[in-house]
Amino acid sequence: MAVLRLTEAPPTGRAAIPPNARGRSALATLRSAWGSVREDLDTAVARDPAVDTRLEMALASPGLHAIWVHRVSHRLWQRPGWRLPARLLSQVSRAVTGVEIHPGARIGRRFFIDHGMGVVIGETAEVGDDVMLYHGVTLGGRSLQKVKRHPTVGDRVTIGAGARVLGPVVIGDDVQIGANSVVVKDVPTGGVATGVPATVRFPEPGQDPREALFADPALWI
C-alpha cells in the first residue's frame, strides 16, 4: 500500500500551476484588457470632436460603454453553458445605453458608435477593424433560419445615421454608407452607398470618400 508523504502534493490528475505563473498570467490579462480599453478610448476621442479627454469619453459615451460590455458578453457567449448570462448582460447594456449588440456578433478593434441610441447589431454580424457607426444603424437579418443572416462589414467602414444593412451582404473595406440608406446587396471595396434601396458609386479620383457622401444632399433629409 502506497504511503503518501507529507512533503508530497496529492495527485490531482493534472500538473499544478505554480502561484507565480498564475500571477503572471493574470497580470498579462489585465495589461491586455487595459491596452484594449485605452485603444478604444483613443479611437473614440479622435472621432468625436465634442470630447477632449479620455476621462470624459470613458464616463459619458454610451456607445463606448456598449462596446465594452459586448466584449465581455461575447467572451461569455463562447463558453459552454454561459449563453444565457451573456444574453442577460447584453440586455442590461441595451437598457442602459440604448445599443443592442447580440453577444454572438463578432466586433473588431477600434470600433466606435457615435451617440449610440438605437443601434442594433444581430447575432451573426461580423464587423472589421476601424469601423464607425452613427445612431440608429441596424445590421439586421432577412431570414428566420439559424444561418449566417446578418452583414459582414469590412475594415474602415463608416455607416451613417439611420442606415439599415440587411441580410448576409458583404460590405467591403473603406466603404461609406449614407444616412437613412437601405443596403440589401453587397457593396464593393471603396464604394459609396446611398439611397433606398442603396445604389453604389465610387469617389472621383482624388476625392475623399467621406466628402463623396455629401455629393447627394437629398440623403440627409
Automatic annotation (TrEMBL):
Transmembrane segments: none annotated. GO terms for molecular function: serine O-acetyltransferase activity. Its EC number is 2.3.1.30. Keywords: Acyltransferase, Amino-acid biosynthesis, Cysteine biosynthesis, Repeat, Transferase. It is an enzyme of class 2 (transferase). It catalyses: L-serine + acetyl-CoA = O-acetyl-L-serine + CoA. Pathway: Amino-acid biosynthesis; L-cysteine biosynthesis; L-cysteine from L-serine: step 1/2. GO terms for biological process: cysteine biosynthetic process from serine. One of its GO terms (cellular component) is cytoplasm. Gene3D superfamilies: Hexapeptide repeat proteins, serine acetyltransferase, domain 1. Belongs to the transferase hexapeptide repeat family. PANTHER family: SERINE ACETYLTRANSFERASE (PTHR42811). This is Serine acetyltransferase.
